[in-house]
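User: Hey, quick favor. My workstation is busy. Could you predict this chain's structure for me?
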Amino acid sequence: MTVTAPPRAAAAIAAGVLAVLDGVWFLLGTFWWSLVTGLGQSDLLVPGQIADAVIGLLLVLGGVSLLARVAAGRVLCLFAAGLALVATVVDAVLRSRLVLFLVGGPTGLGDPLVRGIVISAPLVVLLVLAALPDTRRWTHR
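Assistant: No problem, here it is.
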């Protein structure tokens, strides 16, 4: 007879909370650039605002689902964090080409490398926490 230890909830709860915080961060980015920086309602900001809104909503939904022990929440967190990392890379590449594409929430950092690291670090941690076997077992009750 094989005895398996009950799954530890620490990684799953940390991933859920981090996903919700990251989601709120990206949702704040939806209006940050137009309101706080004084750029106004520019058509150039719309693609980044749409990306921020979609990623933010996916992260919040995935985090809440993960905290509710729904198996799809883990997959949603993984997908949204991956999408956010891709958007951050696209942001850096387009800004290096002098194309205005601002995504990733309010940082107040002008240097693209530092800004990319600040935005990407919690997303990488979220990917690791959501991918852990304990998180998968915890969602499968």
